[in-house]
Amino acid sequence: MIEVIKDKKQWDEQLALVEYLDFYHTYDYHYLSKKDDELPILIKYKDGNNCLILPLLMRSIENTAYNDATSVYGYAGILTLHMDEYFNKENFHNELNTFFNENNIVSVFSRLHPYLENEEMIFEGLGIIRSLGNVVYVDLTKTLEEQRAKFNKRLKSYLNKSRNLSTVIDANTEDYIETFIKLYELNMKRVDAEESYFFPDSYFYQILSSNDFESELKLCVHNETQAIIGGAIFIKKGNIVQYHLSALSEDSFHIDVDPIKLVIDEMRIKATKEGFKYFNLGGGRGSSDDSLFRFKSGFSKEFKPFKLWKYIVNEEVYRMLVKNHFKGYTKDHLSIDYFPAYRIKLN
After folding, report:
1. Spatial distance between the Cα atoms of 282 and 22, rounded to a whole number of angstroms
2. Does 154 lie in the same domain as 114?
3. For residue 284, is it within any domain?
4. Closest to 80 in 3D by CA, of 111, 110, 128, 120
5. Is 131 left (phi over 0), alpha (psi -120 to 50) or beta?
6. Residue whose C-alpha is closest to residue 165's, from 248, 86, 259, 246
7. Residues 243 and 295 placed together within one structural domain of the fold
8. In angstroms, rounded to a whole number, what is the distance separating the alpha carbons of residues 197 and 244?
9. Which of the four pLDDT bands, split at 50, 70 and 90, describes residue 75?
10. C-alpha distances in angstroms, 270 versus 96, 150, 213, 301?
């Protein structure tokens, strides 16, 4: 049986029953992430003692009577409240398909969670699961010394210099949040980031004040000038700490300090002492020359595979939407890797 939950109170009640979860599953993060035409939904499937919940953003497909669904940015996937040997995957797939078809949902996309088990098994036979490389994490159950032993030599040198020349501060106050927002926006413009990496000011304030998870803003201050030269937002939920957003000042280019490396290391130390299990640094850009992944893997050689679930519910309508979207273009639109292909932005 399928039940659709849209209410925050009921959403929170379901998450309270889950043993392992992350802030990406919370109602608040879904509400913060949604666009104007998107609706956060929690699909609850129950069959006997077996119970699964699937968080999604349902959205309308412009100029059609159809919808599709996607996960929030980050790692969502599907959560298991309870699963035993009597779980019938075929029944689950059939119920899910009935719900999708009744709601004119053409396709579904979800970024699976690297630290949760059974997701591939649950979705196997329903669409495709594609690997997108690895994410880097620090195993916080090891001692601080054992963790640091995995750092590359260059990173250790950067951290030693940075600690001598700068200080990391906790900064969950209005003035500091404003400073970080400006720093972040300048950073995104400087690197010519995609539109999806820009957020309204309210996003930062709400993510740092939510009661659904614990967020921390850490800033790096240059000791000599007292200038804020970088910072990052980290989010804690369950046994996981996530490295969420970071920003670097141009001022840091001219001094021998690496503020982002330093704030990450300070959070590593703090989260270990607080008893968390994983410190997820995320993945890279997926290119052959991936400087972002190299940066993160300087902290650890512990990796988890990051996978995507893509499911076309209605093949006929999907093809029609793609054909209409690419009308007038000569490229082979059905072979495009972007999913769903009818949402790719055209030049």
Report:
1. 14
2. no
3. yes
4. 120
5. beta
6. 259
7. yes
8. 11
9. very high
10. 42, 18, 17, 20
pLDDT of 331 > 90? The answer is no
CB atoms within 10 A of CB 80: 18
C-alpha to C-alpha distance for 74 and 275, rounded to whole angstroms? 23
**What distance lies between CA 289 and its chain's CA centroid?**
22
| Residue 102 Cα to chain centre, angstroms | 29
Name the domain count of the chain: 2
Around Cβ 19, how many Cβ atoms within 10 Å? 10
Question: Which tokens in the block code for residue 107?
Answer: 């396709």
In this structure, are 154 and 282 located in the same domain? Answer: yes
Residue 199, amino acid: F
List strand residue ranges (DSSP E) for the chain, in order: 2-5, 38-47, 50-60, 67-70, 79-82, 105-111, 128-139, 166-170, 214-222, 228-237, 240-248, 278-282, 302-312
Out of 101, 126, 151, a domain closes at: 126
Rounded (5°) CA angle 61-98-117: 90
**Confidence band for 284, pLDDT divided at 50, 70 and 90:** confident
Query: Among all chains, which residue has been given the structure tokens 């607080």?
Result: 274
Residue 287 has pLDDT above 60, yes or no: no
Domain match, 225 and 248 both: yes
CB 212 within 8 A of CB 29: yes
Number of residues in the chain: 347
Biggest alpha carbon distance in the chain?
A: 64
| CB-CB contact of 15 with 44 (8 Å) | no
Q: Check whether residue 289 and residue 151 sit in a common domain.
A: yes
Peptide bond between residue 114 and the one before it cis (omega within 30 degrees of 0): no
Tell me how far apart the alpha carbons of residues 7 and 196 are, in angstroms, rounded to a whole number: 26
Mean local confidence (pLDDT), 309-322: 97
d(CA 95, CA 322): 26
Residue 290's domain comprises 136-305
Q: Strand 278-282 to strand 302-312: parallel, antiparallel, or no bridges (unpaired)?
A: unpaired
pLDDT at 334 over 60: no
